[in-house]
Amino acid sequence: MTERKVVLSLVRATGRLHLGNYLGAARDFAELSRDETKECYFGVADLHALTTLPDPQELAASSRAVARDYLAAGIDPERASLFLQSAVPETSELFWLLTNVTAAGELQRSKTFKEMSAKQADNVNAGLLNYPILMAADILGPEADLVPVGEDQLAHLEMARNIAQRFNHRYGELLKTPEGYRKKAIRIPGLDGKGKMSKSDGNGFGIADSPEDIWKVLQPAYTDPARKRRTDPGNPEICPIGQIHRFVSPPADVETIETGCRTAGIGCVDCKKILLGNVTELLAPVRERAQALDDAAVDDALRQGAARARKRIQPTLAKVRKAMGL
Ligand code: SF4
């Protein structure tokens, strides 16, 4: 039997999964979790979330909510290991060991560090600086073969590869150098018209939200400002609603709304109602699974997943400790 490829991905434990997370990642992860040729580890990065100093109760609730959304998205917890990053203490120990083979200058030059430092200038903590090393420990610990990454995570993957190579150069070929696994480039625009849908910006809707709750955010969503009146034509390409239609609506609906928008044949409210119908249909299985999940089922999946992740990481940690003289 050929060895299964180890897939690893972590998602920050901030906020629920939104449509962009679902179409760009969670839906594919659900498929990967059923792929016989893969062994999947999906983590909820609650330790990473600490760098932005979330409220403790909110962090605990949000970590479980993300895990629940992953299960609702269709990840099979019997086949894939779903875990909280903080429930795998081996990763934190490996993190510290790897800090010693990481160049401080490389961390200081990191684009993410610069961006985050500017974003939270009153809280430039060492966690922000060392974030890529923890990410490297997340990846190198389970000896991941494939790490699904988006454009914005390529630099972190590269740093994990550099750290592994530096460790191997000093202590022998012990750490596996991971490969990137490019996620489909799906960029779902935010409903505020300012960049992409993002958990921290709160400009989307949760994948398990009810149609009523989705409508509450769709109804006031930003549209092409050229359409001041119902009779003004617009451009669906610069409108987030028009762009989201292209990801979730059948071609006939896309054609109807795009032509209708350009000719003022359809109003924005009707256009949004069509989108609501299609989103509701797309996410119906997710919502059903979410409703069937209770806290005990989520905790159980996390417990099982953490136990498997720990077992997977322990041999790596043992050989790294030994090689470093511990
Ligand atoms: S009709 Fe639809 S695509 Fe056009 S501006 Fe209104 S909401 Fe946007």
Structure description:
The chain has 326 residues and is mainly alpha-helical. The chain folds into two domains: 213 residues, Rossmann fold (3-Layer(aba) Sandwich), CATH 3.40.50; 79 residues, Orthogonal Bundle (Tyrosyl-Transfer RNA Synthetase). The chain is 55% helix and 9% strand. The protein has 13 helices and five strands. The strands form two sheets. The protein has a three-stranded parallel β-sheet with strand order 1-2-3. A two-stranded parallel ribbon has the order 4-5. The longest helix is centred in the last third of the chain and has 29 residues. The protein is globular. The protein starts with a strand and ends with a helix. The site of iron/sulfur cluster (SF4) has 14 residues, from helix 10, helix 11 and helix 12.
Number of domains: 2
Characterize the quaternary organization of these chains. single chain
How many E-type strands?
A: 5
The secondary-structure element order is EHEHHEHHHHEHEHHHHH
Assign the CATH topology of the largest domain. Rossmann fold
Tally the helices: what do you get? 13
* Mean of residue pLDDT values: 92
Label the structural class.
mainly alpha
CATH class of the largest domain, named Alpha Beta
The spatial strand order of the largest sheet comes to: 1-2-3
Bound small molecules, deduplicated: iron/sulfur cluster
How much beta, percentage-wise? 5-15%
- Please state the CA-atom Rg, rounded to the nearest Å: 22 Å
Largest sheet: 3 strands, parallel
Give helix % range: 40-55%
- Shape category: globular
Q: Any idea what the CATH architecture of the largest domain is? A: 3-Layer(aba) Sandwich
Distance between the termini: 36 Å
Poorly predicted spans: none
Q: Report the CATH superfamily of the largest domain.
A: HUPs
